[in-house]
# Entry
Amino acid sequence: MPSPSAAQALQQLISDHHDALLTDWKARLGIATLTRSETDTLHVEMNELLDALRHALGQTDPLETAAAQQQLDGVLRSASQVRAARGQAPEASVRFVQSCKDALLARLMATDAGDPARQTEALWRLQTMLDRCVMTLVSQFVATRESVIRSQAQSLLDMSTPVITLWDSILLLPLVGIVDSVRAVQVAERLLEAIGRTEAEVTLIDVTGVPVMDTSVARHLLRTVAAAEMLGTQVILTGISPSTALTMVKLGIDLSAVPTRGSLKAGVILALRMTGRQLSGHQQQGG
# Structure
């Protein structure tokens, strides 16, 4: 634990040289290319970090130190989230804290030469805390970036797996892209939720956009069909091409219990008949 004199020296250093530290910090960052809005935001962040550091570095009581560290971590998390949301690289976050550290160390070496022991202790205290700040900032940056990636992946999944209501009691699930085990579970959950909500009588699953129809994909589809039928809907598979049909026969995949059609149009006509509806001849021709 640092002595009161070392802690007080660090606190006094930031209080007495606040503006000079900001000027040096900005020079080390090289912010000439930033817009006025970005410069103003950065100035606020720098002030908040300096104030949080001054408070944390000046504590010697363990409880007060822990509380001050939590406040400092909050400032760092906020700064990191802003940079991650802007799409900046992690290096930008590291440079933000490293430049602050360099400015503080340079100022400490220049102003506290009267007591070597106190200066050594203050240097150790300052370096330890700012190294921890770098780790906190990077850790939060990675967590925020991963959260953004997960959100984007979920948005892509939502767009690639829509459950569409064609008519009352008729749903359509058009599948596009690779259907792996993870996506198959998500597709099934989304479809079953829609069936339960709408009480659909017939559900069309169109696989025209699935590039590979192998044993794994077929098993996922059959499990989804079985679960859907347990909820009272009849499932029609559409988009089964001749080559896909031959492949499934060679693989020994039995879809005989599931109505299939080669095109979505044919599947829709079947679904309408199964629900007691009928298209006019003009509609059947696509007019």
